[in-house]
Write a structure and sequence with these properties.
This protein is an alpha+beta fold and about 240 residues long. It has helices at about 45-65, 100-105, 135-140, 145-165, 215, 220-235, and strands spanning about 5-10, 15, 25-30, 30-35, 40, 70-75, 80, 85, 90-95, 110-120, 130, 170-180, 190, 200-205. It folds into 2 domains: about 5-80, 2-Layer Sandwich (Phosphorylase Kinase, domain 1); about 85-220, D-amino Acid Aminotransferase, Chain A, domain 1 (2-Layer Sandwich), CATH 3.30.470.20. A hairpin with a 5-residue loop joins strand 12 and strand 13 (about 190). The longest helix has 23 residues, at about 145-165. The structure holds uridine-5'-diphosphate.
Length: about 240
Amino acid sequence: MEKKEQLYEGKAKKVYATEDPSLVIVSYKDDATALDGLKKGSIAGKGSINNRMSNYLMELLEKEGVPTHFVEELSDRETLVRRVTIVPLEVIIRNISAGSFAKRYGVEEGIVFAEPTIEFSYKNDSLHDPLINEYHALALGLATRQEIDRIKELAFRVNDILRAYFKGLGVKLVDFKLEFGRTGTGEIVLADEISPDTCRFWDARTNEKLDKDRFRRDMGGVEDAYREMMRRVFGDRA
Ligand code: UDP
C-alpha cells in the first residue's frame, strides 16, 4: 500500500491517503509537545517506539475482542490503519492519582484508587481541551448516548487488559488517554495510539517514571525511559 496525498499533520503524527478510501497510513514523528503546546521539542527515536508499541498493544487488544483501527505495520514509523472520523473526546482512565487529577483535587500522586476512574475532555485546541461530562458531550453533539456507552465499556475493558499485561512486565499503568473513531459503517473502534506519550508508566518496584512526564517535567532521561519501556515490551526484539 503506497502513500498518496497528506491528509493531516498533527503534533506527533502525519496521516496520508492510500488508493483505498477506507484505509490511511499514519507516520509517527519524533516531535513532542506538552503543557497545552507551550513546550516543544523532540525525543530521538520516539516515532518508531510509539509506532511499534502502539501496534503491539492494539494487536493484543484485538485478540481480546477490542475493535481497533490497526491493520498492518508497514515500517518502523508507518502503519496502515482503518480510516475513521475521530470522536472529539479524550477518554482518560486512571488507576493511580497523578498529573492533572492530583493538581485539580489537591492530592498527592500515587494514591491507588479502589476503582478506576474515567473522564472526558473535549478535543478542541482553541478551548484547551476542557474537561466535560457525558451530558455535555451529548448536548454538544459530539457523540450519541449509544456511542458514549460503548466508549466507556471499551475503555474500561482496555484498562483491565493493559493493566494486567503491564503488571507482568513490572510496570504500573497509572493512567492513560484513549481516542475512539467511527468507521464508515458506524462502528466504534479504538484509534490514535497507546504509547509512553499517552500513558503514565511507573516501574512497579521503584516508581521510576518511564513515560512522557520526564519530558513534561524536564527530568532528563527521556529517551532512556522510552527505550526501557520498549525493552520491557519487546525484550531482545526492542
Ligand atoms: N494525556 C494525553 N494527551 C493529553 C492529555 C493527557 O495523552 O492531551 C494522557 C497523559 O499522558 C496521562 C493521562 O492522559 O497518561 C492523564 O493526563 P492528565 O489529565 O493527568 O494531564 P497532564 O498532567 O498530562 O496534563
